[in-house]
Amino acid sequence: MNSIADVWKNVLDRLRSQLSETTINTWFDEVEVVTMEDSAFVLHCSNSFKKSTIEARFMSHIKAALKDIFSSDLEVKILDDQQLSAYHGVAPDRPGSLLESDAFTFGTYVVGPQNKMAYAAARAVAEKPAEHYNPLFIYGDSGLGKTHLLYAIAHQVRQRQPEARIVYIKGDDFTNELIASIREGKNAEFREKYRQSTLLLVDDIQFIAGKKQTQEEFFHTFNTLYESGRQIVLTSDRPPREMTQLEDRLQTRFEWGLMVDVAPPDFETRLAIIKNKAALLGVQLPDDISSFIAENLTANVRQIEGALNKLLAYRDLLGNQVDGEAVSRAVKDMLKKYNEFVPSPSLIIEYICRYYDVDEEQVRGQGRKRDLMEARQTAMYLIRRMTNLSLNDIGKEFGDRDHTTVLHSLDQVEKKMRSDPAYAEKVKEITTNINNKK
Fold it and tell me: Domain for residue 84, yes or no?
């Protein structure tokens, strides 16, 4: 193999031995290989539905194929358009494809009692940036439309001000870009990208809490933009006062402007969302089927979108009619996915390693450094709490430790959570983020 393109071709050839040609053509036709470095194989897919499907259904196949080729485990990352721009160090003077898409505008946002205030505030900000609510802080559980409002703001500002420099970033990606800029000596470029923006949109800002250097950098970025009369819009899964690891000076700044929450939609709003999303997907749903979905999927908008995408897949891939049986099957699958989600031990350990910035081999090994010990004990605690594994089985995940060692770790975590509120909040945050991966 002479190039990474050859590697990807080889991976696809191996997948063909396990998957049908139709499956390969349907889900991988828009996937491109980007690079392979630092034990990571990086791909790009601009289609968000295909990207999420590959991550959910085919990631293990890709990793297994790469292991066959290289005889070692490689991490696999799939980047969307925004992440690809960030990877190449391109400042998004123009928003990514989703921000420009007509699918995510104020016109396609379904308004109900639970999100009316957030919608009105977002519109006001888009019409007159930095004149009224700066920053605008939107909070609520995952999948309730916060990101849609960010896209809608960007879309309207772009329509009114084509020259505007709009920057959209997720909280954890802000940290990753900062680390990369320091490593590559590009601090000046990093700061110019954010501090010269006309409109800064930060999704999931809660991810910067507890990261000292990231908070320091964002503090100065916030001040520069605010004092220059530039609009800042932030979203989070909780209000600033509930982020116990967020610095006080950032908490007060986040509360300077307007804070609005979004709650799960009621039945009427869910029904309107279903009809709206179905129309965008080109699916005609009878009233009884729409009502059935609205009655059974109540958690968030993302659940509803998932069910409709599943129906679309039934229709396009299998030639099935969108009838009561298909809807019942799609809803049942979504309910199982959201209500019976049990993360694997490897998923928990993988996330813990990223959170604490430690190697998986170290977490599973015998190292005694303080941060490493905390990461290992936290991983054991979460595996015990979130899975059905016995103490002995958990021990096997960490170098064949016996059940008494695991039990001691669980006790240590519980004691620390009672005595250290910041650590308790950290465990809560990690648990929430793992659950959001379902």
Answer: no
DSSP class of residue 399? T
For residue 89, tell me if it sits in a domain. Answer: no
Starting at the edge strand that comes first in sequence, how are the strands of the sheet with 231-236 ordered? 166-170, 199-203, 231-236, 136-139, 258-261
What are the phi and psi torsion angles at 239 (to 5°)?
-70, 160
pLDDT at 85: 67
As separate numbers, helices (DSSP H) first and strands (DSSP E) second, the chain gives: 22, 8
Predicted confidence at residue 90, as pLDDT, reads 43
Per-residue pLDDT tens digits for 269-294: 788 878 777 776 666 777 777 787 77
Annotation: binding site for ATP: 143, 145-147
Q: Structurally, how many domains does the chain consist of?
A: 4
Same domain for 301 and 420, yes or no, is no
Using omega within 30 degrees of 0 as the cis cutoff, is the peptide bond preceding 135 cis? yes
- How far is it, in rounded angstroms, from Cα 236 to Cα 275? 27
| Beta carbons of 353 and 338 less than 8 angstroms apart | no
* Same domain? 407 vs 275: no
For the domain that residue 401 is a member of, what is the CATH number?
A: 1.10.1750.10
For the chain, the straight-line distance linking the first and the last C-alpha, in angstroms and rounded, comes to 35
Token pair, residue 163, equals 């020259």
Closest by alpha carbon to 273, among 145, 150, 149? 145
How far apart are alpha carbons 150 and 167 in whole angstroms? 11
| Residue-range definition of the domain harbouring residue 415 | 345-436
Report the SS3 class of residue 182: helix
Q: Is 282 left (phi over 0), alpha (psi -120 to 50) or beta?
A: left
Binding residues: 143, 145-147
Stretch among 79-83, 208-212, 371-375 having the lowest mean pLDDT: 79-83
How many CB atoms neighbour CB 107 within 10 A? Answer: 10
DSSP, res 241? G
Higher pLDDT, 29 or 306: 29
120 and 253: one domain?
Answer: yes
pLDDT at 323: 62
pLDDT of res. 344: 84
Q: How many other C-beta atoms can be found within 10 angstroms of the C-beta atom of residue 96?
A: 20
Q: How many residues does the chain have?
A: 438
If asked whether residues 282 and 155 sit together in one domain, one would say no
